[in-house]
Predict the structure.
Amino acid sequence: MEMLGYLRKDGRVGVRNHIAVVFTVECSHHVAAQIAAGVSGGEVWGFPGCYSDPHAVQAMVACGAHPNVGGVLLVSLGCEGTDLSGLAHAISQSGQAVEVLRIQEAGGTLKTIERGIAVARGLRAHADQAERVAIGPQDLIVGVECGGSDTTSGLAANPATGHAIDLLVAAGGTAIFSELPELLGCEQYLSSRGETPAVREQILAGIRRAVLYSRAVGEFAVSPGNRAGGLTTIEEKSLGALCKAGTRPVKGVLKPIQRPDGPGLWLLDKVGDPDDHRLTYYEENDNDGLMSLIASGAHLLLFTTGRGSVVGSVVSPVIKICGNPKTVARMGDNFDADAGRIITGEAEVDQVGRDIYATILRTAGGEPTRAEVLGHREFHLPYKPARACDL
Amino acid sequence: MQSSLKGRQAIVLHPDDNVATALVDLAPGAVVTVSVGGTPATLQLDQPVPFGHKFALRPIRRGEQVLKYGTSIGVATQAIGPGVHVHVHNLETGYREDH
């Protein structure tokens, strides 16, 4: 099957052609949402804070310039702290089409919505002219994430997803994994997979910060629930999470917003410095994690679950993989891949891995994921005052 | 107790592993066949092993690494025979936070 992507001015290719309607403060969220609803392929997302935040601005630039986006309309109230012109300029550096509306100047809610829909439709017409080019796995960056995990996660959905990632990397593709605080206890094994001594040291440095972070927030443990579920040690729990990243060497360690500069498997290190009193949260929820993978260039996301997560994302499609057969029976409409067959004995890990890999290619070719069909477009872009990128 | 779901009772995640993980609640006396890298292995359990819990595939010496995913998940604190439940009573972390 031939896959066609969208060729962007910066040379990257996208697998979607969204019009992003971006609010630059919560005050313009409603107006932006109304505009997005009035244009085909329109998506709303943004940053709610009134006081500008360097990480949020970088994330908005990265997501606005993302190759899955064919045009950007920034919707501002007019008096928030974020530098609107600077933001528009930074996004346009990639060659992206960017328009700006300020509600206070445009004449309030109704006039801004009316004008915004007209502007967004103009962006749509422009985006529809994007050149279509044949793409393959070598053009894809795929992020992996998990949420709503249970006993089956480390036995079914994560190993199968890891197999799919190995297939992608073998085909010349690129993958990103993160969630370092969930990998405590397997740093010797993980660092041994670093491709160079420098990468091995970066992995260990990230884990050292993750240990400090986990101690600070009291998450450094195998919980009683984990124990009851059969997990005995921290390294066992961590290996169950790590296996969704497959078994390939780790090419390099990315800081937030950085993109991989070549194919292979990359680790995204988002852990800030817990000695810095400004660090309050490492990651607030699963969508926060998905946005960081997207900001690092992920075209597609693989999301493993056991208890059953329903979320999707803006910008990049989310492929849901569930490994608990009871959850699949209860809410199967939410999942793209059924790894519960591993638990029931209907399929082997590598078979489900091949199915997930085929789903990656179909999704890249334009087939909507379950989360897309169901309208899931969650996003979360919080303040992040202390981050790995500052260290 | 036999599995009602196509008969898979336990899974071995890597051919090097010395433990399997139960995919159903297994009762004492259960005869369990698992695939170790495509090769079938059959064991008899002498203890209950609940869903998600581990049992040894072969004799594990005291002090030996317990392997799952082909990687160490800790150290056996006593000798463990084939088919014996492996959990907090005979397996401890090999992880030291401070290294």
